[in-house]
Write a structure and sequence with these properties.
The structure is a single chain. Helix content is 35%, strand content 18%. The chain is α/β, with parallel strands linked by helices and 216 residues long. The protein has one domain: Rossmann fold (3-Layer(aba) Sandwich), CATH 3.40.50.1240. The chain has a six-stranded mixed β-sheet, with helices on both faces. A hairpin with a 2-residue loop joins β5 and β6. α2 runs parallel beside α3 and α6 crosses α7. It is globular, with a radius of gyration of 16 Å. The chain starts with 5 loop residues before the first strand and ends in a 16-residue tail after the last strand.
């Protein structure tokens, strides 16, 4: 393996009550539910014994709590990182998918089509979000050449990383899982990301929630 490469374990936070309700969380600070805490413990145990140089987490509690459980298992502190936050959805935040369809039907069409330039009022476009996530994760990975790091964040973040690693554009239909507390593995070099393994759920007792529409 090249000394310039960094191994990345990418984890989506454990389940929240808003995941269950299909309510858009975005930048809102929603806590894990009971099942989410169980998932955090399960993924932590699965990663116990891994050679980890650092754990980076979105500073939103649902991701940070998940990361802290992992940190206890591997003996590392969690480094909260604002750049790893979920996509900012502005006025959509706090609404369910169904409510968005009713309140803003024209905007909902742009959202469903994954229009790269569409930006909900007060939110981020997909292009802006993609650029933020790739810049942030690439920067973190560059600090750890030849090492392995854990990045705990959100469904949207992992969607961006999967697309970058597989060469899929922002509008390609999603056929891959973005479930809570799944283990995903990537490789980063200065040339970009590549996929090592995706959607490992062997540590979870029940299948994780993976909203078909836009997991947040």
């Amino acid at each position: 393996m090249s000394q310039e490469s960094t191994r990345i374990i990418a984890i989506r936070h454990g389940e929240t009550a808003w995941n269950v309700d299909t309510r858009i969380q975005g930048s809102l600070d929603i806590a894990l539910n009971a099942r989410g805490h169980e998932q955090a413990k399960a993924v932590a145990e699965a990663l116990r014994g891994e050679d980890i140089a650092a754990i980076y987490s979105s500073d939103l509690w649902r991701a940070h709590d998940t990361a802290m459980a992992i940190g206890e298992a591997v003996g590392l502190a969690t480094i909260p990182t604002e750049g790893l936050r979920e996509r900012l959805f502005g006025k959509f935040e706090g609404k369910t998918f169904a409510e968005v369809e009713v309140l803003w039907p024209d905007e909902a069409v742009c959202w469903r089509r994954r229009d790269p330039d569409f930006c909900p009022e007060g939110g981020e476009s997909l292009i802006t979000f993609r650029d933020r996530i790739l810049k942030c994760v690439s920067g973190l990975a560059a600090r750890h050449a030849g090492q392995q790091i854990i990045v705990v964040s959100h469904g949207g973040d992992n969607d961006i990383l999967y697309r970058a690693a597989t060469g899929l554009d922002l509008q390609a239909p999603r056929t891959w899982s973005l479930g809570n507390a799944e283990i995903n593995r990537l490789l980063w070099t200065p040339q970009g990301f590549s996929l090592v393994g995706w959607s490992d759920t062997a540590h979870l007792q029940t299948a994780p929630r993976d909203e078909v529409n836009n997991p947040k």
